[in-house]
């Protein structure tokens, strides 16, 4: 069959992309019978650029493979339901000897017969069509899944509300980096105590990463993310009262806030693995994660104004109340997966199910911990998440203090300059997401795309943070931080998209594991930064003599070293291929 396709392509002066796609399809159809399992069919069809394959053919094969039960070598695969019907409305001529394969009027073969494929009875066709009908699917010829969607998509609502949740996530997190300056003055805190307060958030954040991922994979991301947002919003609103009660109570309140925020990323990842087609993954995740940067922008920009007008407690009260309002909107608008959503159109439901791995729609049972933790690809994500978050959280929590203590800016000026890097991240994360999806659609392997994007996300910040030790002006420091964080945002199309690549069914658990390491970087990084700064103030020694030197130069050097280590680990250990079903 492939020879015939090649002959037909050569008969055209300039073979069209459609002819080239038919050649590729002929190669797939000529493979041994075992490749006709549902997962293999979906993988093969997803690898071809959608614009090149005839819609009717692609939809028909993808819709069939959803009822195969996953295949993958666990027994003989079911034959294509249209294999014996020369007049099938889905695809004319498939499975008929000495009959041309006609798609959109293009003859691509004349004697196609898959190896050892049995003929299919009318009852077999009826069985598959009945399953499609029960799922709310129309025949492929009447339901163009790729081109026929119009109007608002329900998955956009899910992605948009996840974006809003992540805005609130960092909005409530960064307000402490502004408020801690007047709080430290009021309560007489040292730099080490300020570091303790900043790091206490991460104590709780670490506790719920894996637990949140397991719960989201088992019961659904809607409930877990919703309760997480409500929990951390209430803890944020309670922060002023906790601070008034004493330092231990404040540390407990910040820890409880971290407990709520700890489930956000794993729950979101598990939810979007079910809602977002593979071809939209990078840009959807980039948009959601850009909500964190948008929250940083809004928090760092608004907090000084709210604080100067109403006092530092008002920052926590006002920001915390927004999460309660979000919770009620979330509960009334979102379901954990498309098959449970009563308001989604049958057309969009079919499109999502046809373009996501079947395993992603299944709730996880027992988590194969041994299998997960035995793979170097999983450890690549875990270790690189630690390396990435060290620098990210230092900037998130200490940037206003750097501008105030080193460059002598007032609170309002430091707030304005602290906003700029997060604006750059919000913009560049979406640029990176769209670029990554475009590269994949043009045939670049997912592994290559993830490695390139994450290398930019590591090496860019390493380059520009290394310059901060010699910068003496506010403008130069702001430029370095903007460039650093703008390039850091490429991580959203690298590291942060990789969990769904390698194991969509366990996306929540995988992100919980890696974000535990990321949260640990926040705990250790914030504390170490406080001690390094105290060492600089004390003439160069801290931690009982273990740290010699100190100050902001040492802070930036630690971050740069971890970025470089992360680059090496990512390039040698990561993959973009699915390794867990």
From TrEMBL:
Gene Ontology terms: cellular component: chloroplast; plastid membrane
**Where's it mainly located?**
membrane
Which GO molecular function entries does the Swiss-Prot or TrEMBL record give?
A: phosphate transmembrane transporter activity
The keyword Cell inner membrane belongs to this UniProt entry's keyword annotation: no
Residues of the region (Disordered) are 68-95
- Going by the entry's taxonomy, the superkingdom of the source organism is recorded as Eukaryota
- The residues that cross the membrane are 158-181, 187-207, 219-239, 251-272, 284-303, 309-329, 378-399, 419-441, 554-573
Keywords linked to the UniProt accession: Chloroplast, Membrane, Plastid, Transit peptide, Transmembrane, Transmembrane helix
- The signal peptide, as residue positions, is none
Where does the record place it?
Membrane; Plastid, Chloroplast
Question: How does this protein lie in the membrane?
Answer: Multi-pass membrane protein
For the keyword Ion transport, the answer is: no
Q: What region holds the Major facilitator superfamily (MFS) profile domain?
A: 158-578
By its UniProt entry, which InterPro entries does this protein fall under? MFS, MFS_dom, MFS_Na/Anion_cotransporter, MFS_trans_sf, SLC17A9-like
Q: Which SUPFAM superfamilies match?
A: MFS general substrate transporter (SSF103473)
* Similarity-based family: Belongs to the major facilitator superfamily. Sodium/anion cotransporter (TC 2.A.1.14) family.
What is the protein's given name? Answer: Sodium-dependent phosphate transport protein 1, chloroplastic
Q: What is the lineage of its organism?
A: Eukaryota, Viridiplantae, Chlorophyta, core chlorophytes, Chlorophyceae
State which gene encodes it: PLEST000730
